[in-house]
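<purpose> Linking amino acid order to shape
<body> The protein record starts here
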Amino acid sequence: MFNLFDFAARREKSHEIYDLLTREYGLRELPQFEDPLRTLIMTVLSHRTKRDDEHATFDALWERYGSWSAMADAPEDELLNLLERVTFPERKAPYIKAILARIYAERGDYAINFLAEMPTHEALDWLLSLPGVGRKTASLVLLFDFHHPVIPVDTHVHRVSRRTGIVSPTMSAENTHDELLILLGDDPYVLFNFHKSLLKHGRVTCFYANPACERCPLKNLCDYYAGKNHVSK
């Protein structure tokens, strides 16, 4: 059973995976963005949406409104029409308006830079209290914009983590956020590059269906590959 796994072995494996994938895909510096609120709204738009559609939609919103206050005041049906390229526009349009209204009501401005000075757990709780903001979105904003020690677990990070066996194959994405932090430590640079590397790997090799195991640099570490090989013999 997974709960009998040796924690030290899983931690060692997680760092081996980090080394192999960052060698494969390269290391990146932590990003430096000018407007964390842009990251937040774009991440809300990105849920189950292709990257190109997410960016095109945000660009269309900004071209139409040009400021957060104008976007906040926009009629919801007008906003909805501009979200036609993203999934669930009927949910995301009211989320965007509600998020902007909440921020302005609390802060008197359309900015979330104050999160930089908050303890990580408080900043995470604050973001999670916003309409339509889940753990992945909150973690992405805190890591990418403020370099807080958190890790966003999207579908690719979750899939690769479970298949390789560094977390349980039945572990939820919510719990995987916490488990990866325990395994990897609290260096934002490592957490960022682990996230980016597993994201890339899930997109180009460790597909949901028919993963390209034979060319995978992780195959000698991967529980999924070992199990597949065992079954095929």
